[in-house]
Amino acid sequence: MNEWLAQRRELVDSLSQALRAGFASVAAFDAPAYLDCVEQQEELCRRIAALDRRLPPLWEASGPADPGREAAAAELKTMNAELQRLADIQAALIAHGSRSIRSFQRVWAMGASGYGPPQE
User: Fold this and answer.
1) Using CA atoms, how far apart are residues 91 and 99, in angstroms rounded to an integer?
2) 10: Cα within 13 Å, side-chain hemisphere
3) Which one of 2, 57, 76, 78 has the lowest number of neighbouring Cβ atoms within 10 Å?
4) Cα distance between residue 88 and residue 93, in whole Å
5) Residues 41, 89 contacting (CB under 8 angstroms)
6) What is the percent of the chain where pLDDT is above 90?
7) What is the pLDDT of residues 53-87, one digit of tens each?
8) How many CB atoms lie within 10 A of CB 107?
């Protein structure tokens, strides 16, 4: 169980980093990097789902209390809450990030076409 939790923690941390990179690419007006980040996030989500399908049993329904089992269950609950938060952030990034990139591209195009400050 500890190995499974460690693998899942690594994937969740990687997803968090990929989301940060996605926001950084939007802030840097780097559309290709943003799209790469979205693809990386989707791949990490698939890997987390695949790992979740191989979840080892945390506890038997009838058994003595085990602090290790309780700690594992608490860690899993914490990761699930974090994943929910990351899913909300990822949805916002996808919804608003692509819109931001398009807006920035329009501004760049206007700048490239010689748009300047208003004439006085």
Assistant:
1) 13
2) 8
3) 57
4) 9
5) no
6) 19
7) 988 776 554 456 677 778 888 888 998 898 888 88
8) 11
